[in-house]
Write a structure and sequence with these properties.
The complex is a heterodimer of chains A (226) and B (719). Chain A has 226 residues and is of the alpha/beta class. Chain A contains 5 helices and 11 strands. The chains are: A alpha/beta (226), B alpha+beta (719).
Chain lengths: 226, 719
Amino acid sequence: MKVGVVVFPGSNCDRDMFHVLSDVFHFDASYLWHEKPLPADIDAIVLPGGFSYGDRLRAGVIAAHSPIINEIKKRAEKSTPILGVCNGFQILVEAGLLPGVLLKNNSMNFMCKWASIQVCNNETAFTNKLEINQNIPIPIANSEGRYYIDTPGLEDITKNNQIVFRYMDVNNGSASEIAGVCNKDGNIVGMMPHPERAAEAEINPTDSAPSSLIFESLLNTAGISK
Amino acid sequence: MSLEHQEIQNLTSKIGRTPTHTEIQIVSAEWSEHCSYKSSKKHLKILPMDGPRVINEKGYDSGVLDVGDGYIITAHIESHNHPSAVEPYGGAATGVGGVIRDILSAGTRPIAILNGLRFGDIKKDANARWLFKNAVTGIADYGNCLGIPTIGGEVEFDSSYSKYALVDVAAIGFGKKENMINNHADIGDVVVLLGGHTGRDGIGGSQFASDSLESENRSAVQIPDPFIEKMIIEAVLEARNQGLIHAMKDLGGGGLSCAISETADALSVGIHVDVDMVHTRENLTHDEIMTSESQERMLIITDKSKLEKLETICSKFRITSSVIGHITKGDVIHITHGDMTCANLPASVVANAELLDRKSQKPQYLEKIQKNPKLNHITNHTETFFELLTAPNIASKAWVYRQYDHEVGIRTVIKPGMDASVLRLDNGKFLSIKIDGNPKHCYINPREGAIGCFEEACRNVACTGGTPIGMLDHMQFGSPKDPEIFWTFLESLKGISEYARYFKIPCVGGKVSLYNETPDGPIKPTPIIGVIGLSGKRPPTNTISSGDYIIIVGKTQEEMGGSEYMEYIHGVIGGICPAVNFAESKKNMAAVIEAVNYNVTSFAHDCSKGGIAVAISEMSISSGIGCDVIIDDIPKCDMTAENIIYSESHSRYILAVNPEKLNALQDILKRYNVTYGMIGRFTGDMIVFSKNKDTIIKTKLDVLKKAWEESLEEMIRNG
C-alpha cells in the first residue's frame, strides 16, 4: 500500500510518521511536498504533526490553502483513507474536511504528556482493528488542542458516530472530551494525540500494542493482514 | 560598552594606522568578553579536550563525538543571561535558536535540547516569577516549533539571581560521520548569507553581555522567529546532502563581524564583503549591518557553480539568500559599502583579542562562613519534610517540562522528570544526557561544589546505564575584574578539570559567561556541567514492585553546607560543602552502571538535593508505592537523624531491587567493594522513616504526591 506523508513548511513529525509507516509497518511510504502534484498511485494520505507556517494566524489555517489540499479534497471524495495527526488534524478541520475547530488549550499552555484515550468508533479506516471502549496510551503535544464545535454540530457528529476518540485524563477543555473525529464516511480521521509516538515498544513506557492497531487498521483497510 | 583605551592603542599599533569607525565596531564586538574569552582563555587550557571518541574539526562551534558505526553526535552549550533578564521570552527563545545553529553548522541534525534555568526567590519575588514563566514559554514556543524535543534540564531558584536570570541551553546533534561539513574555502568561492533579514535588533548584543546589567537595553535583545529557523535547518540539511556547502558558520554573538572574521581566521583565507548586498529588514548603516545580532542567519561558503542549486533550495523553503562577498587571497577581511572601504583588517587581529591576566584572590566571605552554624531544633520532622519536599527547588518541575514537546523525533526513551533523559540512536545505541549545577554548594566551596555538579550529572547518567563519554561546561560568574570572583572561577575550573582528567571524560564544548551581576551584586558562582553518556542497551523502565528492597550505595557524611535543608528550612548559609572522593565516585558509579545494564535493579536514582529523604520519596511518588526506611542501617558518620536524611553527600545512589534479584545486586556491589546498606522496603501507601524504632517521618503518599506535584504551579499561578 502506497502511503503519502504530506510535508508543509514547518511540518515536524513527517520524518517520525515516515519511519513508523515504512520501518515498523512496512508500508510503501513517500513524502509529498505541498506544492508538488499528488501522485495518482497514492492509496492513503497522512498529514503529520508540526507547526505548518509556524502556526501563524491560527494553527493549520495557512496550510489548508496549500495547492495539495485541493487534490486531497478530490481524493477524499473517492474514499481514499486520510489521517491527520495534531497539526494534520488542525489542517483538515481548517480545510473543511472534518467538522469542528481546534482552539487554544484551557491552560493557555503547550501540553506534552502521556494520556489515555478511548475508542468510540471502530468502523473507520484507521480504527477497524480496535475494540469499542479500548484504551490507548498515547502522548499529546499541542497548544491548540481544545476541540470545539457548537451544540447542533456536536449533536450531529454524535448522531452520525463521528466521534472516534475521547480523552480519559486530559483536561484541555475539549467539547465532550473529544480527541479525534472522522467524516461521515469514516475514511478521513483527525486526532490530536500522536499514534506514531506510541507504536514502538522501545519508546512507549506502557503498551505500544493499542497504538499499533491504528496503523494495522489501515493495513486491514487495504486488505493486507499483519 | 566598547573597546577600552588600551585596546584601541593595541589595535592601532597592530594595523599601523588609526582604525575606522566600522573597524572599531567590528573589533569591539569580537574583542568583547563574550566572543573573545579574553579573561578565561589562558586558563581553559587545563581542561582535557581530547579522547578516543573526540573528533576535532576546524571552525566548529560544537564538539563532536564518535558514537560508532559511522555515526557522530555534536554537542554544545550556550547561555542567554543578559537578554533573558531584560526580555525573558525573546531572550530565552533566541538562546535556543543560537545553540541549535551551532549544532547545524557541523552538518548534523539537532535532535535534543536541554536547559538550565535560574531565577530569584519565586516565593517572594514577583519579578522572578515573571522571568521564570516567560523564559519557559519562550523556550517552549521556539523548541516546539522547530520539532526538536526539549528532553531535560534543571530549574533552580536562589536569591542571588534576583532581578536576573540564567538561561542555559544545551543541544545535541546527530548524523553520519561522512556528512560532517569539512570546512574549507577556495579563492573565488562565494560567501552567502541566508535566513532572516538583518535588522536593528540585537545591535551590540555581545558587548551588552560583556558588562554588568545596569540598564535594560532592550534593543540589544534579539527577536525570535522559530519558523525561519526550522526552514533554515531543512534547507541547510538538504544543501548538505547535495554537497553544496564548503564551509558554514552561524551568526551569533557579534553578528556578521564575528562570523566573517572567525571564518577567515579558521580557514586562513581573506573575505571580501559588500554590506550593500546584505538583505535587510530596514534601512541600516554599514556599522549596524556588521554588528546586528538578528537571529536565524547562516553564512555559507560555496563554489560559484553550486550557487544556483543552493538558491533553488532556499526558494523551496522560502528563505532569502544573498551573495554578500567572496573568498580572497591573504587573510584580510575587507568590508565595503558599495565602492567605499569601511574596514580592512587582518582576520587574525580581529579574531584573536589580547588575552588578559586577571588577578585572583581568595574571597573574604569564605573566611566568614561558619563551619558549624547552630540550627534551630526541629520538633516536628514530618512537617519539615513536607516543607522541604514542596520547596521550589525540590518540588516537581512537570509544570515546566510539560510545556516542552519532549517526544518529537521519537527518540526519547527515558522522558524528563527523574535522572538523565535517554535518546535512542540510529545505530542501536542509547545516549543519556543530563545537566547539573549547584550554586549553593559552589558559593561555599567553588572547587568542591563544581566537582559535585560534575559528579551529579555523571550519577544521573549512570542511573540510566550510560557510561560518560564527554562533557560540556558552562562557567557563569560575576565580573572577572574582581579578583575574588576571578578566584572562584579558577577554583571551579580546576575542580572540573581534575575530575575530568581522573575519569578521562573530555570536555567537548563549553562557554564562559562573565559579568553576571546586577547593581545588587554578583550571582553565586554557577558552573553548569552537562554529561553525555553512551550505552549499548536500552535502559530498563523504572518500575518498583511492592516488597522491593531499598539499597543505598555510598556513605552519608556530615556535609550539610549549601544543602536545601540548611538554606531553605533554616535560612542559613554555612556548613561544610559536600566533597567528592574520586576513588569512591569511580567504583560506586561503575557498580551502578553494571547493575542497571544487567537489569538487576528495578529503579536506580541519584541522591542529591534534599538528600536521602527526597530521593526515596521521589521514587515512591513515581511508582505509587510507599516506603519504610530504617535510618539506622544507612552507612554514615555519627550524625543526627535530620542530618542523615537531608545531607547532600555525593557518590550516593538509591536502588530498588526485587528480592529475587537481591543476590545478583549484592554480588556486583561486593565485587566493586562499594559501601552500601539495605535500609528498608518499598511497600504500602505511607512514607515512613524511623530511627531506633521511633517513627520520625510518617505521611500519606497520595497527600505528599499531590503537594509535590502542584507546589510549583501554585506558587506562580497568581503572577
